[in-house]
Amino acid sequence: MFASETESAIHESAGWFLEHAWLIPLIPAIAFFLIIFFGKRCPKGGSEIALASMGASLVIAAGAAYQWIDRVGASAEGEAGGLLRGFFGAGRVAEGEGEGEAAGEVVHHLEPVIRGQRWFSIGDLEVGIGSHIDGLAIMMLLLVAFISTLVLLYSTEYVRGDRRYTHFFASITLFSAGMLTMVLAPNMAQFILGWEIMGLCSFLLIGHWWEELPNAKAALKAFFTVRTGDMGLLVGTGMLLAMFGTLDIGGEHGINTQAAAFVGDHKTLALAAIALFIAAIGKSGQFPLHTWLPDAMAGPTPVSSLLHSSTMVVAGVFLVARLYPVFQVGLDITVAGNHFNLIAVIGGITILIAAGLAFVQNDIKKVLAYSTVSQLGYMMMGLGVGAWVPAVFHIFTHAFFKCCLFLCAGSVAHTGSHHSFDMKKDMGGLRKKMPITFWTWIVSTAALCGVPFFSGFFSKDEIIDSAHGNHYTVFFIVGLVGAFLTTAYMTRATYLTFFGKARGGAAHFVNEHEDHLHEPAHDEGHAEAADDHGAQAHDDHGHDDHHAPITHGKPLPFAPDDSPWQITVPLIILGTLAVLSGYLNAAPFHIEKMHEWLHSSIGVTLPEAPVFEWVNALPSILLVAAGFAVSLYLSKAVFGDAPSPLKGLTRRNSLLGAGHKFLVNKYYLDALYENVIVRGIAYPISRAAYWTNQNILDGIVNGVGKSGKRTGELVYKYIDQGLVDGVVNGSGATATGAGGALQPVQSGKVNLYGALLFGAAAVGALVLVLVNS
Amino acid sequence: MLVNNFLLLGAVLFCIGVYGVIVRKNAVLVLMSIELILNSVNINLLAFDQMHGNNDGGVFALYIIAVAAAEVGVGLAMVLLIFRNRKTISLDDLSEMKG
User: Fold this and answer.
1) Chain B residues with CB inside 8 Å of A751's CB?
2) A337, A400, A553, A697: least surrounded by Cβ within 10 Å?
């Protein structure tokens, strides 16, 4: 049935939702314009349009996912029947190599559903717009629509009363439309379209409170850094077009098919892969272009949780996963004996440096931002070591728990710490007061750290396991160290936020809350924060200079215990999924749904994932436990009440102090970019240009000027006065005469001018006819 | 044969237009004559378009219609302003361009 799919694809219906998947990005796109034009007149400022549109998209995405799973099941049954069931089911370990190959062949027949129509054409190249549905696209569609819906719900409370409330929802809706467009893209043109829409929305949303300079600067930094990478996307796409003569990703003659069977100049394909990977580095915050992502936390927290942790930043990973044959063949990922490749190296470096930076952050959102960078490193490394399905699965689980963590941070700041994100100054001791936030945070943290039976364990451990299985030993160790570091910094952040003694804003919230609950307005600063807690009360980026006493008001009157339901409901849903989403692909229990659904999207044959054994998982579990213990001990000693010799150690021990300073300054990467690279390139060039200007050009000009002057004097005396003047005067006299003769023609009468024009044209035409005949 | 007829029609229109431009003293009528000239060109283009059987001439004709619309807009605006300032649109009275 599916063998003839490619020929008859257009005529054969694949199910309503799969056929109409183009509606998924279109609905939010239309909603964006509705919000922009009519949002302010709506009773809820446009947020209801945003929520309704995302809800509709979510329903269609869910329907499409259902039909896709149905399709996978039908193809498995139709082609291989019980054999395949055995392969994908519990019997997988027992089955031998032969079945594995047969199953791979069957899955290969599961063609993606590609629909579309002509968008524009350049010469012979037709560029379409439409939808390309396979397992990967379905997963991302569902993920983006689902998380967008929850975050929009959360935002209705979080940015309530903001001065650009309507614009906020418009931008988020546009972002979702862009991301969904990119995920559905059947060709690189539509992919770039969605990619750039996301970049624009990222810029708009980071700079949502642009009145404050740091926010505007962070938005610009994010935009420019990502744009640097985007050059790679254009160059890479151009190279692919030159090599394969098409922009289509899938299909019979698509990039993926041609790249998988590539026979031409290997170096060209490698260069194209590197160019595309540079784009992924920029978008997904990989080393060395990761510096924009922590600064992007200047945006409102829902933006951080939606764009800068769970969806937009995985676009780079998605790019690599989508065009995997290009990278796999171009960079020799699974060639035997290859223990390094660009993707794995960059991913590995990113895991470690970002995890290191997360230790010295005081801003809870920055900890999470570096954690995101580090986890993106895991995904990239997973793709780099040939663990395609685990890496994509990590996108899936990471989205839930990291989005949840960000929303928890927002909940704490919104309700508990008076819009401050500084863990050391304004948090601590919040666990009793905010139970829902606390428990969802704990669950998501456990998932992030890879505690067994939480979702992160299943995805991350499979990446680490595959690195080992595919003989990338270095990256196996990097993954383990990363797991240790992750647990350690998350323990530190959890301790600072929820345990210990309440400080600053949190102290007001925890201790004085009862006394002030019924006071209508407290001090002047807080009255503003309570009535209109958008505006400047939304100190959302945790820069120290904004911790003026004015925001250290008293607790918000609406917060008897935890945050309002618009905030807690998304937290609970995401927290639940942080546990449950892992069981779609839980290797220890031989559940391999993700392998089954996504397998046809890979486009190349990858080595079998190693069989899970608890012995192999033991090192990472032990390291997670060790990270927790060490970090808890240190956190208690350093941040706790009891006096400890460890306090102020970085100030006393010069070596540790230097290390601390090195981390606080983010490995001096920002300084490197701004002072060394930008100045290093710009300054010498300008200085050299100045020197050239002063000495060479001026010398020439001056020399020419002097000799010119001398020549001029001679010329003036003999040639000018004698010869030229005579000619000039003569021609002047002639012109005067001719002018006098022709003066009557310039009558000023328009009709005469018209007659002259047509007369001249007629004469011209006559001449033309005579010459040509 | 068909093309010939179209070209003849174009030529006649063109001549009427030129006559109007040269003889008429009313600025509005001159503008109308210019329109006639432009449309005679359009007819020629469309006639050749038919002859060659492609769409190139039609595209040019569309351009000319757009340009003519813009031209007449500007022209009428100028005539209107001149009328406001001078209470006349007779071209004989407008000879400031005399050299």
Assistant:
1) 21-25, 30, 91
2) A337
Average pLDDT over residues A355-367: 85
CATH code at B2-93: 1.10.287.3510
Lowest model confidence (mean pLDDT) among A185-199, A491-505, B63-77: A491-505
Task: Identify the pLDDT of residue A650.
Answer: 62
What proportions of chain A, in percent to the nearest 5, are helix, strand and coil? 75, 5, 25
**pTM reported for the whole predicted model:** 0.69
User: ipTM of the assembly?
Assistant: 0.78
* Domain locations along chain A: 669-730+746-772
Kindly identify which residue of chain A lies nearest to residue B99, measuring between CA atoms. A746
Mean model confidence pLDDT for chain A: 79
Tell me phi and psi for residue A430, to 5 degrees: -90, 0
Q: What are the chain A neighbours of B95 within 8 Å (beta carbons)? A: 747-749
Residue ranges of chain B whose CB lies within 8 Å of a chain A CB: 18, 21-25, 27, 30, 91-92, 94-99
pLDDT higher than 70, residue A11: no
- CB contacts of A745 in chain B (<8 Å) are 99
pLDDT at B25 over 50: yes
CB A307 within 8 A of CB A202: yes
Residues 6+ apart with CB under 8 A from B57: B45, B46, B47, B48, B49, B50
| Cβ-based contacts under 8 A for chains A and B | 36
For A235, the enclosing helix (H) or strand (E) is helix A213-244
Q: Are A25 and A184 in contact (CB under 8 A)?
A: yes
Residues of A in contact with B18 (CB under 8 A): 754, 758
